[in-house]
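Ticket #4471: structure export looks truncated?
Reporter: QA, pipeline team
Priority: medium

Steps to reproduce: submit the single chain below to the structure queue and open the exported record.
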Amino acid sequence: MTHHVSCGLLVRPGHVFLVHRSPSKAWFPDVWDLPGGHVKPGESSRQALVRERRAELGVEITPPDGNALLTRRTADALLEAWRVNGWAGNIVNAAPDGHDASSRFSLDEATSLDLADDEHPALFKHV
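Actual output as written to the record:
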């Protein structure tokens, strides 16, 4: 496996927080996505989620409990999406090279966006 990615569905009642992937990204450019990042060697998916939220969004989260909302395996990748209910701090775009925008959306707004994955609207139902 080449890539192990952990991403978080950051939720507030009736809303989700998404990032817009930069048009220069090699994978999934110019679409809205769950904030996420690569899991480093020796790190769990939950640990990566905490580290990446701090680095990319400037917030502290508690590692999620239970199972991932979505686990997708391909020949060269493993993607896990976790529900994140709360965080400390104000969300900022601390990684402008990877994301050119970030915003909170209502569920109707989020489902009408150009999304990185066709499975995202199903995930939004977990809000």
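Status: closed, not a bug. The export was complete when the record was re-opened. Leaving a note from the reviewer for reference: The longest strand covers residues 3-12.
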